[in-house]
Amino acid sequence: MARLRAAARGIAVSAALALCAAGLAAAGGGLEFNGPTIKNPTVPPLFALHDQDGQRVSLAGQRGRVVLLTFLYTHCPDVCPLVAGNLNLALRALGPRRRQVRVLAITVDPAGDTRASVRRFVREHQLAPEFRYLTGPRATLQRLWAAYGVKSLKQAGGDRVDHTLYTLLLDRSLRGRVLYASTATVSDIDHDIRLLLSRPA
Prior knowledge:
By secondary structure, the protein is an alpha+beta fold.
């Protein structure tokens, strides 16, 4: 429970750091999102990492798609699988339209998230092809975590990692529009994705 409270506190910190203190508001840009809406949408820091298939994936390369960006690790016993599962369910609920959407999950545990463990996580959770689990060198990831306000601290003597956990919804122009806590529901995520898909690219 303490880990969940710490993660919840980290969400607020991450929003301020990663989005340049954009702040949250009830509505933004005339769209009525179900999730907490970012008042002044901006493009977050760009990056390029490798996915579970070893393919290079860049955030810039997702322009024209709706993107869900989150931070996970494969050995997480509780919250990460829940978040991954909810994002995956939201993807699958879209049917063929999910080809216009990407989930980018960035590791917070590069030592534990080996290629084998990532591929096993993807297989065991039956993640859709549009769900890309991204890894890279620790130095690269540490810079990225800092840019997004993400804290990652591995507990001594085990696989657990205390880390900031949130999901950022980006529009087709890669502007951050909604910031979800780990408790976000599939229905809210699905609603907000469809709202962005209904807008011109």
